[in-house]
Each structure stands twice: as C-alpha cells, then as structure tokens.
Amino acid sequence: MIDTHMHITMEEFDNDRERIVLEFEEIGMKCAIEVGYDIESSERASLFAQEHEKVYAAVGVHPHDAEKVKDGWLERLSALLHQSKVVALGEVGLDYYRDLSPRTVQKEVFKEQLKLAQTLNIPLIFHVRDAYEDMRKIVKDYDVRGVIHSFNGSEEDAKEFVKMGFYIGVGGIATYKKNVALREIISHLPLERILTETDCPYLSPQPVRGKRNEPKNVRFTIEMLSQLFNKSFAEIESQTEKNAKNLFGICS
Ligand SMILES: [Zn+2]
To answer: CA 206 from chain center: how many Å?
Structure first.
C-alpha cells in the first residue's frame, strides 16, 4: 500500500513520527508522500524525505496560505522542486469553503504554481473545496497532470477530471457511513485512476474516526475499495500502488 498524502512533519507527530516510518516495512507500506502546504512545511517535507528512504515529498502553497506568501516564494519553491525525492507540486488549488485567503489571491498563487508545474513537467496534488468548476476553468489553460486530493464532488466532476487525465485521491471521507453517494461515484471510476491517501493527522477513516489519523490507516480505504469493486485487498493494493508509481514515479 501507498499513502500518497500525509503530513507527519506536523507537530501532532512530534512524539512518534520516526517510529511510524520505521514500521512502514512491517505493515507493508511501500512508500508515502509527505505534503507541504506553505514554504516552511515544504522545506520540512523535502528534508524529511532526504532522511527517510520510503518517504517522498510534495512542495507547494495551499490556498489557505496563499495570502501569506512573501517575496521570493516562487524562487524558493522552484529550488525545492529541483531537490531529489521531491516528486510533486502540492498541495495547491482553491478553497471556497473556508476562504482563508481572498479568492483573487488564491487564483493568482494557484496560476503561478501551475505555470511552474508545466515548465518543470512535475505532477500536481490539488486541494479543491467547493471550487471544482473554477479550478477546471483555470487548469484547462495548462498542460499538467495530477491528482484531485480527497475528492468529494459529483459524478459530473469525477467524469470531467477523468477526461482531463487526472487521478482521483480516495481516503477517509469516502469511508464515512453517510457518504454512500460518494462511494457510488467512486465505484464508477476506472480503478487505474484511483490513488489511496490518508491526509493524516486529519480525516481518519470510519473505524478510527475521531482519533489522530496515521499512514497505516490507508488500509481501511483499500478495504472499502475492495468491497466497492468486488476485488481482493491484494488486487486493489497492487493496482493503486501501480497508479501512484505511474503518476509520481515513486517506490521503484
Ligand atoms: Zn493535506
């Protein structure tokens, strides 16, 4: 299994992040991607990846943090993207649900990063909330690939994203009891476009909901997918690993 979206350099893991990564081998975690959300967390993610064989990094500025960027941020980001084991630009996008940065600023920062991803030919990890349509309008002007992290849209959205060549990130949200409609949508997706993720410490899947999330919980998402697609755990695991390798070129 692969966790394509974790945040274990956050302080929630100050007491046990080394143990968590040490256990990857034992629990069958092939590798995982530590995802940054501003320049500082991106630098931490990159450093953490250099220090841990099974960890890769994504670097980028989250829409929440778009307003806080300082002069020279794009140069710092670009330098990070050239480091080894940095395999994606993210998480980036638009968040109209919380609107923590003004939408005009979110769009501006998003576009700069899309341009950079296109120039460097590096995949993106998209964080998009209540803004799928605007996001597609913007992204259409760029030649980029990537994953819609923690997808939570309509059947139409899913179809559009698949048509655009994107992968769909599936994690805790899709395991929640009440999210029957989302699971129905996911069950119609091509399995070769699904990536597994936790977004830990957030979004713990159903059986451990309310507790701090951890990379190992990605297995609950694989279990849910195996029921949904009527395939064995091993089949889903192997296909989703292949998908992550295809998009990010990791875990070789
Ligand atoms: Zn995240």
So the answer is: 19
Ligand 1 centroid vs 125 CA: distance in angstroms? Answer: 9
At 133, list the tokens: 């349509």
pLDDT (0 to 100) of residue 157: 98
Question: Which candidate, 189, 195, 30, 186, places its Cα nearest to that of 124?
Answer: 195
Please give the distance, rounded to the nearest whole angstrom, from the Cα atom of residue 34 to the centre of ligand 1: 9
User: How many whole angstroms from 165 Cα to the centroid of ligand 1?
Assistant: 21
Q: How far is the CA of 138 from the centre of ligand 1 (A)?
A: 21
Per-residue 3-state assignment (H helix, E strand, C coil) for the chain: CEEEEECCCCHHHCCCHHHHHHCHHHHCCCEEEEECCCHHHHHHHHHHHHHCCCEEEEECCCHHHHHHCCCCHHHHHHHHHCCCCEEEEEEEEEECCCCCCCHHHHHHHHHHHHHHHHHHCCCEEEEEECCHHHHHHHHCCCCCCEEECCCCCCHHHHHHHHHCCCEEEECHHHHCCCCHHHHHHHHCCCHHHEEECCCECCCCCHHHCCCCCCHHHHHHHHHHHHHHCCCCHHHHHHHHHHHHHHHHCCCC
**Rounded distance from Cα 71 to ligand 1 centre (Å):** 24
- Reported as half-sphere exposure (CB side, CA atoms, 13 A), residue 44 has a value of 14
**Per-residue pLDDT tens digits for 60-73:** 999 999 999 999 99
d(CA 127, CA 37): 10
d(CA 12, CA 9): 8
pLDDT tier at 27, thresholds 50, 70, 90: very high
